[in-house]
Design a protein that fits this description.
alpha/beta; 4 helices; 146 residues
């Protein structure tokens, strides 16, 4: 399935982050402010996966819209010098964050648009002990803001 990075953003850019929950904006902005030189560029609302519809769905415009509506969306993809971070941002993450990051990683490798090693990353205010152990088990980098 295709990957659509969209337009790159400067790590200094602040604004309404496409498709990110507004409740998560303060967590993300605090993380960016604490790490101003971490990323070379950032992509928001990265579409991965989704269903490629056949001609039975309609014309090309309709099939594109169908794919856009079925694709999964990564909150942020941060490009560092030697790797990329596939990032889920959550003020108060739960079990859902584990599944999202696992799915994003699997789909990313079907059509990576940046050929650098990829790591799943959760940016949050904190997680409970069970969730933390699970995220570590699945290789997720935890980045907490205070």
């Amino acid at each position: 399935m295709p990957t659509d990075l969209g337009s790159p953003y400067s790590p200094l850019w602040r604004g309404p982050y496409p498709h990110m929950l507004q409740a998560d904006y303060p967590v993300w902005e605090k993380f960016l402010n604490q790490n101003p030189e971490l990323f070379e560029r950032i992509y928001y609302d990265v579409r991965i996966g989704g269903v490629i519809a056949g001609p039975e769905i309609g014309d090309e415009k309709m099939r594109l819209m169908f794919w856009q509506n079925t694709a999964k969306r990564i909150d942020a993809l941060g490009e560092l010098k030697d790797e990329i971070w596939i990032i889920e941002v959550a003020d108060r993450p739960g079990l859902r964050a584990v599944g999202q990051l696992q799915t994003y990683m699997a789909l990313w490798w079907e059509d990576p648009k940046i050929l650098k090693p990829a790591k799943p990353v959760l940016v949050s205010r904190g997680v409970d002990a069970d969730l933390e152990r699970s995220l570590i088990f699945y290789g997720v980098l935890l980045r907490h803001v205070i």
